[in-house]
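Below is how a single chain appears once it has passed through the pipeline. First comes the sequence as given, then the structure the pipeline wrote out for it. We keep one example in the README because the format questions we get most often are answered faster by looking than by reading.
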Amino acid sequence: MSVRGWSPEWFLTLCELGSMSATADALGVPQSTLSRRLQRLEYDVGTSLFDRAAGGLRINSRGEVLREHLSKANAELVAGVEAVRRISDPDRGTIRFDFLHSLSTWLMPRLVRGHLSRRPGVEFVLHQGPGVELSERVAAGISDIAIATPRPTDPDLDFVLLASERQGLAVPRDHRLATRRRIRLAEVADEPFATLLPGYGTRQVFDELCDEGGFTPRIVFEAGEIPTAGGLVSAGLALAVVPLGYPSMKPEGTVIVPLQTRIRREIGVVRNIRAAPNPPVEEFWTHVTSEAPSLLGETEIAHF
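Resulting structure:
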């Protein structure tokens, strides 16, 4: 059923004031217009909502039922409008920001903290995961911005390269190659490896390095995070390919030897070019693209 010619505002004001003329004055509309709105509403609901009296209008039991529901609806409408205004306000908006596991302890906090120092009213919704998943979340509209890898192939996704990441081999401190300045992965082709699960950018790089070395690795453990793989190295159970220079990527009792290869992992920031304009997100995008390259450059990984 359609209900014509009404809005929560005028009906709730009429209920409060109990006077057609006073309500018309309060809303700045002609009294005749307001009278026609009430007539159409009562016709559509099929009953009267006010009792007419000499002193004005008195809401009846049927009108009370409608007022109760419209009060709730109006509150939701006000909340909805406020929510839309909030996400469009650079000072108060919500930013859905995704990032790689390997960036969760240092790069993500520094980017978020730097942005909040200028926009303290902004809210962040954060998510970490493997690179391919993060790009898919941006494409699906679940997230606004992601720092991800590898470079996405979806034409709707904008990708700005932040760093080309060098890799190293994590070995136990007493390993035969621990003192080398650099090595090729093929030199340890017969040793066990711990690596990440398929779908992670680091796993993709590991597979490419093995292909380059011409061997099939003996994988003894597939982890969800790089530090877990590093823990197996520390225990002397495996070797692991890890990024160079990350503050959290050097497990106790291990040495990371740079790999001699041109293979790199591209880290970039991703957004959906078809997403509706959103000032808070656009401002944070500018912050990330301007600040992240220099922050990554403070480590050993950023070699373009």
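The two ends are 63 Å apart (CA to CA).

See the next section for the split statistics.
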